[in-house]
Write a structure and sequence with these properties.
mainly alpha; 21 helices; 72% helix; globular
Length: 525
């Protein structure tokens, strides 16, 4: 059991608002780049699609590599009194500068200069973004060890992200001209303004939240063993399920987001309505958020994700088969097509949005899972490795979108005036991205993720409320009682079912007679 500060301020709305400000700040920067950086460099700076493809892969690979490095530093190196907040403060300063430089408007520069600006500015930005985002994500499990508190933090984190996304959703009204082409010169001012707001929001995170878990534990002066961290991560089956699902989400939703912008530029030829459509597409997710805690309490996180992804698949299928009408240059937009596209997109976004909300609480469950297996929490390392794969997937997604656009005959010089066959193929390609992503998300949680509803409660009851597992955090030779291990690994002898080896069983000193594994199956309804 981790130490909890007895003299700390009680958990409350101050922590929730403070934590929400963190994802608000991070997503102001991240969503601006993920939504518009590709369009900015391809349509305004006129970088080739194939060059963007390798630039973003290299950039995201670097971005992903520095995640576990910084995660390990936050676990082993404390700057000041706080384990995580000092890192957030340092990173926030660089984030202001680098977000602005990414959108430096120099369309008249040589092609080589534009390539270097695109690559290097993104790589430096990613270092400071990681320096903020990894410790911010790890802060979640340090604020409270109560699962109800953690779920509320995840909800407020999503609210913060949602507010920043709403702001980005409003941008089409100002960043496109009367011909539906991008006004690239204004992005540097948008980036500067958003960065300053994000800087003060991150100050709010540090001022409003309180670290209650582990705050009194001294940090051991030892080197980070990355091999052991990687080995433990590799054996953590549920974190791999989340990693696969999150990679699919990053590639097929985040990566393909720019394609939806191009659909409204070149197929529907109406970017004015894009803001309303994008906002409307997230309405179901917002509605679900108000009852999410009750849904999770009743059905469990895993089942909520499964049902929402299945529903979303129906929406994506509707987008694929419905006969949407193409808008000619200078023609009027078909209202029915816009309405039906919006309706189907609303349904398709349910699974994406709900997973995006729940996943952070599920990651914390995976940290507890690893705590039981290894006796070490390593929040920063686990979170950073998970983030490593997410960011790598974002690069793959953006790169893949650029290559698909090039393969479909997209001509950046034409802007919104793409031929009918090209515009139609781009629309179909975007829908296929959604379908494939949702299918992978559904299968990974259904087949691989093995923390069921009953396991969530048992992990908390045994590991936290009863303080049974406290010795496991303090050194070698600690034993976790069999009922705890069986609650998490109900089929501990069945290596095929959940990948737990006999060595794992020995670690937990498991006595299979202490728990009836059939109870897990009964509770997973």
């Amino acid at each position: 059991m981790t130490d909890t500060a007895t003299n700390a301020r009680p958990f409350g709305i101050r922590d929730k608002i403070g934590y929400a400000l963190g994802d608000f700040a991070c997503n102001l920067s991240f969503t601006l780049l993920s939504t518009y950086m590709m369009l900015y460099y391809m349509q305004y700076m006129l970088i080739k699609e194939t060059d963007w493809a390798w630039i973003i892969i290299v950039g995201k690979l670097w971005d992903a590599i520095n995640d576990p490095i910084i995660g390990g530093l936050t676990d082993r190196v404390r700057i000041g009194k706080s384990k995580y907040k000092s890192w957030i403060s340092i990173g926030s300063i660089g984030l202001v500068v680098c977000t602005t430089i990414v959108f430096l408007p120099v369309p008249g520069a040589s092609y080589a200069v534009k390539i270097l600006l695109c690559l290097l500015s993104y790589m430096v930005w990613s270092v400071f973004y990681t320096m903020v985002n990894v410790p911010y994500g790890s802060l979640h499990s340090a604020i409270s060890d109560d699962p109800v508190h953690r779920s509320s933090l995840s909800t407020f984190r999503s609210i913060g992200a949602g507010v920043s996304m709403l702001i980005i959703m409003l941008l089409p009204a100002v960043v496109y001209d009367e011909n539906e082409n991008l006004k690239g010169g204004m992005f540097i001012w948008l980036a500067l303004g958003f960065s300053i707001v994000a800087f003060f929001a991150l100050i709010g995170v540090n001022k409003l939240t309180t670290e209650r878990v582990n705050v009194n534990q001294p940090i051991e002066k030892k080197k980070q063993n990355y091999f052991q961290v990687l080995l433990a991560f590799a054996k953590n089956r549920p974190i791999w399920a989340l990693t696969i699902a999150s990679m699919a989400q990053a590639i097929c939703f985040v990566g393909a987001n720019s394609m939806n912008q191009i659909v409204f530029q070149s197929y529907f030829r109406n970017t004015d309505i894009l803001t309303a459509v994008t906002i409307a597409s997230y309405v179901p997710m917002i509605v679900v958020m108000f009852i999410l805690s009750k849904l999770v309490s009743r059905f469990g996180k895993r089942n909520c994700v499964l049902v929402s992804c299945a529903i979303s698949l129906l929406g994506a299928l509707g987008m694929l088969v419905f006969p949407f009408r193409y808008t000619e240059v200078g023609g009027s937009v078909d209202i029915l097509s816009i309405v039906m596209w919006t309706l189907f997109l609303m349904i398709a976004n349910i699974g994406n949005g709900l997973f995006g909300v729940i996943v952070w609480a599920m990651v914390v469950d995976c940290i507890d899972y690893q705590n039981l297996r290894t006796g070490q929490r390593d929040e920063g390392s686990i979170y950073s490795l998970y983030s490593f794969f997410r960011k790598l997937a974002q690069g793959i997604g953006s790169s893949l979108v650029a290559l698909v656009l090039a393969g479909l005959g997209y001509q950046k010089e034409l802007g919104s005036a793409q031929p009918l066959d090209v515009a139609t193929d781009i629309k179909t390609g975007y829908v296929l991205f959604l379908l494939i992503g949702l299918a992978i998300m559904l299968l990974s949680i259904l087949v691989v993720y093995n923390i069921k509803k009953s396991d969530e409660h048992r992990i908390h009851d045994e590991l936290y409320n009863k303080n049974i597992a406290c010795p496991a955090l303090e050194g070698d030779g600690a034993q976790i009682p069999g009922e705890v291990a069986e609650a998490v690994f109900p089929d501990v002898d069945n290596q095929t079912n959940n990948g737990i080896t006999n060595t794992d069983k020995e670690i937990f000193n498991t006595d299979s007679n202490l728990c009836n594994p059939e109870e897990d199956k009964k509770d997973d309804r």
